[in-house]
Amino acid sequence: MAETANPAGAAPQGGQVILHDYWRSTASYRVRIALALKGIAYRRVPVNLVAGEQRGSAHLGLNPQGLVPVLEIDGLVLTQSLAIVEYLDETRPAPSLIPADPAARAHVRTLALAVACEIHPVSNLAVLSRVEALAGPQARADWNRDNIAHGLAAFEKLLDHPGFAGKFCHGDRPGLADCALVPQLYNADRWGVGFAHLPRISAVARSCEAHPAFQAAHPDRFAPKARAAVAG
User: What is residue 190's predicted lDDT score, i.e. its pLDDT?
Assistant: First the structure.
């Protein structure tokens, strides 16, 4: 079932924008945040990862990797969350999600990739299912909590840079790195991994929690039970 999301009340640019995602997918959450920050309205097509819909022929026709998110925009079919966010920033530059200064751009990308290429892949559904199949449910939980905790500890140290002003990952407005970090913090909460002892991450989390774009993109707004309650 498709549904319409218009987080900032803006009309989509270049025709209808369609986001294929799963409500609790951290990669999908990144893109929803970016769409909300840019004020881009879109039609959402849920893909149930637990039911295996990502492996169906319809979804594989959009993304041969069988992953979410997939964004249809400007006549294109885009995959990989960070590539999608960068495309949005390049084609719809206001507000900017990546700094203009080359050194700052490199650091923001480092922060985003520290989540998307280091923490997230080891904690995705396929890996966790494999760990559980080999060693059981407790091993799955231990594996994931250890991975998230170590990854966030490293991210905290990466936030110790001149562009950190105590509000967002870089500067005084949210950007690419925040789009990557916040969904990972949501996942940390789900698995009982605390981060209150990480002051920089905690400051970013508080700022993002109060921001309307992050509120509009939150998984709780798209959870099946939440949608059923609204419909009822």
Answer: 94
